[in-house]
Each structure stands twice: as C-alpha cells, then as structure tokens.
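Morning, I've got a small favour to ask if you have a moment. I owe you a coffee for this, so here goes:

…
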Amino acid sequence: MGLGDKISNATEEAVGKAKEGFGDATDNESLEAEGKMDQGKANVKQGGEKIKDSAAGAFNDATDKREKH
C-alpha cells in the first residue's frame, strides 16, 4: 500500500470517527450514520490495499526464489 493511500484511508477513517462522535453528541442520527459509513469505506479500502500488498509480496518472493535456482 502506498504511503498516500495509507494517509488518505487513515484520514477518511478519522473524519468518519469525528462525524460519528459529533452526531452522537448532538443527537444527529444522520451525521452519526454518515460517520459510520465513512469508517466502513475506509476499512474496506485498507483491506483491499492489504490484499494487493500481500499478493505483490508473494509474487516478489516467488520471483526471488526462481532467480536463485
């Protein structure tokens, strides 16, 4: 996962938590739900990036092993 993606996803998650907290504190159910949605989207993106990183790592490991033989 690129650094820019990590920062973007972390920011989106933090904004979501802030919205959720503010919505809860002000009894604004819509804002609270929006915050939860933002957090969920950020978590899905982070999961996708982790899968890409794992796949790239596995490919690099396989390539390294192949080059050694």
